[in-house]
């Protein structure tokens, strides 16, 4: 595995593949349950930075993420690195739990904050099952421990094959408060699980 920049902080390896086994699809024996995938219309247009960014917030750990358009309302746990140097993931048994990379950027402060969660588990859909159905302009809200709520607006929703994952585009440093929400996608193989990742690109547009 090669090193890559991850949310303004160095991190090693393909960090989200542990999310991508597709245990539910393998157990069901069919691809008819595959989660939605983003269309080309939701990709970032050249030169489009979306709505103006709001001023950065002071650091405060996040406690919860809400994405009303796809009915996500989930607690956030802190994620660290595994012994192998990749990002750990939330327990698969807790399907309505997401995580954020604690050693990286805090959601709301300047830089690229990372949130990740499972698309499914052995029992069925998990927290980010519908992430690929999210559309540009949708809101993502992050409750923070200081009582504030960081409000992000979705700029793009894209899907990447694991073999051609654009490290710098997804994990690279940002000059404004940005957020990436990541789960699995990109088609499904019974032998290897999901072939890639769905990535939501968003930036801070408000707070309360």
Automatic annotation (TrEMBL):
Keywords: Hydrolase, Membrane, Transmembrane, Transmembrane helix
MF terms in GO: hydrolase activity
Keyword hit for Cell cycle: no
InterPro entries per the UniProt record, alphabetical: Sortase, Sortase_dom-sf, Sortase_F
Transmembrane segments: 6-26
The keyword Transmembrane is annotated on this UniProt entry: yes
Domain of life from the UniProt record: Bacteria
Pfam families in alphabetical order: Sortase (PF04203)
Region described as Disordered: 31-63
Biased composition (Low complexity): 39-55
Protein name listed in UniProt: Secreted protein
Source organism of the structure: Streptomyces sviceus (strain ATCC 29083 / DSM 924 / JCM 4929 / NBRC 13980 / NCIMB 11184 / NRRL 5439 / UC 5370)
Organism placement in taxonomy: Bacteria, Bacillati, Actinomycetota, Actinomycetes, Kitasatosporales
């Amino acid at each position: 595995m090669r090193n890559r920049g991850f949310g303004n902080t160095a991190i090693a390896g393909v960090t989200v593949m542990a999310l991508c086994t597709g245990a539910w699809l393998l157990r069901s024996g069919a691809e008819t349950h595959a989660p939605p995938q983003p269309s080309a219309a939701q990709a970032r247009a050249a030169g489009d930075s979306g709505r103006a960014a709001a001023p950065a917030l002071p650091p405060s750990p996040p406690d919860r993420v809400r994405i009303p358009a796809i009915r996500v309302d989930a607690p956030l746990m802190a994620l660290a690195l595994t012994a192998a140097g990749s990002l750990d993931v939330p327990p698969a048994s807790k399907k309505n739990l997401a995580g954020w990379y604690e050693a990286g950027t805090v959601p709301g402060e300047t830089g690229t904050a990372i949130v990740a969660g499972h698309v499914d588990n052995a029992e069925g859909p998990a927290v980010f099952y519908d992430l690929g159905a999210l559309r540009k302009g949708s809101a993502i809200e992050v409750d923070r421990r200081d009582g504030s709520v960081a409000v992000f607006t979705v700029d793009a929703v894209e899907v990447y094959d694991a073999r051609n994952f654009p490290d710098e585009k997804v994990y690279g440093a940002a000059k404004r408060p940005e957020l990436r929400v990541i789960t699995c996608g990109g088609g499904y193989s019974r032998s290897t699980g999901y072939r890639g990742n769905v990535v939501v690109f968003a930036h801070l547009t408000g707070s309360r």
